[in-house]
Amino acid sequence: MATDATIHVHHLTRVEGHGDIVAEIADGQLKEARFDIVEAPRFFEGFLRGLPPSEVTHIASRICGICAVSHKCAALKATEAALGVEISPQTNLLRRLAFHGEVLSSHLLHIYFLAAPDFLGLPSVMPLVDSDPALVRRAMRLKQIGYDLAAMVAGRHTHPVAMTIGGFSYLHDPGDFQPMRERLVAIREDLDASIELFATIDIPDLERPTEYVSLKNPDRYAFYEGDVFSSDGHRIPARRYREAIRERVVAGSTAKHARWNRPEYLVGALARFNNNYDQLHDAAKSAAERLSLHPPVHNPFMMTVAQLVECVHCVEDAIELIDEITDAGIDPAQQQSPCEPGEGWGVGAVEAPRGILFHEYEYNADGKCVAANHVIPTAQNLANLEADMRLFVPTIADQSTDRIQHLLEMLVRAYDPCISCSVH
Amino acid sequence: MATERTIGRFAHRPQVAFFDFACCEGCQLSVLQLEENLLEILEHVDVVTWREAMSEESSEYDIAFCEGSITREEDIERIKRIREKAEVLVTLGSCASGGCHNELKNQWSMEEMTGLVYGDHADEIDTIPSRPISAVVDVDYQTFGCPVSLPEFVTVVKRILTGQSYDPPNQPVCVECKHNDYLCVFEKGTVCLGPVTRCGCGAICTAYGDPCRGCRGLMDSANLGALLKAWTREQAHAILGKVVERYGFTEEEILARVRVYNNWPELELPDLSPEEAGPDGD
User: Fold this and answer.
1) Nearest by CB to B56, which of A126, A147, A161?
2) What is the tens place of the pLDDT at every residue in A108-119?
3) ipTM of the complex model
4) Which of B115, B141, B161 is the last residue of a domain?
5) A266 near A306, Cβ under 8 Å?
6) Cβ separation of B117 and A43 shorter than 8 Å?
7) Do the chains contact at A117 and B55, CB–CB below 8 Å?
8) Fewest CB atoms less than 10 Å from the CB: which of A158, A204, A383, B244?
9) In terms of residue numbers, what domain contains B220?
10) Do residue B30 and residue B154 come from a single domain?
11) CATH for B55
12) What is the reported pTM?
């Protein structure tokens, strides 16, 4: 181990939001390894109070510009649970389809624009605009199809406009879905090329088994709905999440940390992959094979690769969902379930691109929000990230300080942190 | 890459930086969705600082695009430093230009906010009443929306590069809504802020059956008093008779919606006492 090294990365680049890496090795001993969240809090849990359900669910998507559909749907599900609103099977299908768009756009933004430059030895994708325009255009096509798929269902990805309590404010025409279906079929070629690219890159070694937490659904690879599941063998309904997940405020961080059975746990693509591998589409399993990804995977750097596998799943499942909706036709009677504002309490849990997300709201007899709680994937991952950092630093301490710093930056980026979201 | 050339106001290829303050970063992400337009813009400028997308960084830049609201003392210092360096400062979206929902927290004391979320650690949290960037420094170009309207962003980029000014539109969203023949959201029994909100969004919300919630801010000439008088149950019949009466909204319902995006400065409510209204209720 290097005798002394001090690393302080102020406002890490190529991540969403503001975070600082702090690591210190003194006299050959690891003293410190932290990722401090220094983002400005916006206090959603404070200012949503007093607002009616229509405004709460409208504003909630603004917690995050990247995972706006996830926040919107978590808020809708919590509010619908509070008000006793049942959504139609058609709304369920359409929301699941919108999730695939969001997961694609978010994952591909991370895979190509945030993470890939590290593997290609570049500071960003900007140099590729000149040197490899074909790759940049491929990355943009892939990212854009996700936004467009979400927009096809929700009117716009950032921020959704057609999603409302009980269903949709807009009656879809399945005929409009066919051009998207054709694009999804065509995009397989771009995904194949992405898999080839990532099959050749060197992923740093770091093995640390941890607790993997995700939704679990008996019928499908869960994004929109399911129970809360831990790889340590626990499973509870989402509405009881507070019995399992405990958040705590940590000095030096405006985002909270969380624990369940262990002092830390992992959420996101790798947790879903490990917990729900069997339910992946066959094409995604083939992609995992080509990428040498076999569950359980304990290397956090593989999160980016697991995201790529999920992209294959989302494209294939989106095609199947479009076919299912087209065959069934759109039923105007299922557009929006009625909703009477009133008293109630509810929890909504979804798999945002970065992992399991909880929204919880309480409404009083006047129909006003009196309490709000949001548990964000990136916040849940922070303790796990720091545990990884503590294990990782001693294994790379014989390298130069610059190299240690670069590898730590890569580790944080592998988590694809969504920091302004985690602080909210 | 385009050959080196000068256009508009800049004697050299302009250097562009992006900065973010308290927000969801959805405006930056929306800019990334410009695709071909973005590649065309990159033919005319060099992006030298964009922390979210690039590790390259420069302390020298000509044009600063800034998103988010100012919510800490340190943000004030930071935006002032950016203002000093940038020849052109552009606010991106409503958090930076007009207020947005961040300002909802200003209804409470900051101690209540920090205590509610951070409990025993509340004292460690630096937060001040939220305000748009435009309330702290001079801004050369403003773009609006939550998220930013992309056609407006592209227009502003062109105006900057060619040395022209940009006046945001000052007509209501109703203009774009009617132009597109969308069903009036009032007909669905929902409060819509289209009549008082700055257009330029293409009426995307009403296109999908959602009401306008005023994310692009009130028009400069927006007459909140008229809005309230025209839409509240008490005044409705005097203005538009049965047509408006059937909407039957309360003042509280309308103001709750107006406040979401327009609470900076703290919303001052027009006096709606009966004697204020003329015999025709105008």
Assistant:
1) A126
2) 999 999 999 999
3) 0.94
4) B161
5) no
6) yes
7) yes
8) A204
9) 173-259
10) yes
11) 3.40.50.700
12) 0.94
